[in-house]
Amino acid sequence: MTWDLFSIIGTIAFAISGAIVAMEEEYDIFGVYILGMATAFGGGALRNLLIGYPIDAFWKQDLLFQIALLSMTIIFLFPNKLMKHWKRWENITDAIGLSAFAIQGALYAQKMNLPISATIVAAVLTGTGGGIIRDILAKRKPLVLRAEVYAFWTILAGFAVGAGIIKSPVSMYVLFVLVVVCRMLSVHYKWHLPIRSLAKIQKSPDN
Predict the structure, then answer these.
(1) Which among 11, 81, 106, 195 is placed 20 to 30 Å from 171, CA to CA?
(2) Residue 128, pLDDT score
(3) Among 127, 161, 156, which residue's Cα sits nearest to residue 144?
(4) What pTM did the predictor assign?
(5) CA dihedral defined by 103, 108, 114, 120, rounded to 10 degrees?
(6) Residue 107 has what pLDDT?
(7) What ranges do the domains of the chain cover?
(8) Concatenated DSSP letters of 56-110
(9) DSSP 3-state helix, strand, coil percentages of the chain (rounded to 5)?
(10) C-alpha span between 6 and 96 (Å, rounded)
(11) Distance of alpha carbon 151 from alpha carbon 127, whole angstroms
(12) From CA 15, how far away is CA 75, in angstroms rounded?
């Protein structure tokens, strides 16, 4: 039940996120569905390939595919007045998808009895892979590589699950909320990992 819930939450959140980005880039309805599906399922596909999870499992997610299509259709048909305010919620939707899929990816790795290192990688790939594919298709710099602290929270989620700190369904829900809150705090306070810009160094008067 916990597994299914995180899958559904992540699928809805990332399908909507991909659809919104497609509409921001003025893609047609086909582009909206392609970008939404890539965002919702891209990370899971990459994870399955890397950790050796049966690839045919990807095509057995009929319910999730239907949920994703329904979510994108609803967003595409949203009244214009409501869509004007969507930008305020975009980061929240992305944070929800990031958290849900990071935990789901870690659970996949644990199901296969993989070591903690693989659990962390599975969490990071599942949480960020779809967003990376979305941004590349939209010709944007991947959010995970430039935004406020992003992938770091998926690493923490993977570690918590892989190290056995998080075991019960209740503790997983707490972890889910914690990752969402941390992601939103990093957006609000503009927390960043260290950045070194070669362009700024080259423009420095000392050079």
Answers:
(1) 11
(2) 94
(3) 127
(4) 0.87
(5) -30
(6) 92
(7) 2-203
(8) GGGGG-HHHHHHHHHHHHHHHTS-HHHHTTTHHHHHHHHHHHHHHHHHHHHHHHH
(9) 75, 0, 25
(10) 10
(11) 8
(12) 10
Q: Are 130 and 41 in contact (CB under 8 A)?
A: yes
Report the distance separating Cα 66 and Cα 42, nearest Å: 16
Select from 191, 19, 177 the least CA-distant residue to 90: 19
Q: E strand or H helix at 13, and its extent?
A: helix 2-24
* pLDDT tens per residue, range 96-144: 999 999 999 999 899 899 999 999 999 999 999 999 999 999 998 887 8
Residues in the chain, pLDDT under 70: 1, 3, 81-88, 147-148, 199-202, 204-207
pLDDT at 192: 81
| Start-to-end C-alpha separation, the chain | 60
Residue 14, both tokens: 């990332």
Question: What is the rounded distance in angstroms from the CA atom of residue 23 to the CA atom of residue 82?
Answer: 14
Find the helix or strand (DSSP H, E) in which 166 lies. Answer: none
Q: In terms of Cα–Cα distance, which of 127, 134, 125, 114 is closest to 49?
A: 125
The DSSP element (H or E) to which 26 belongs, if any, is none
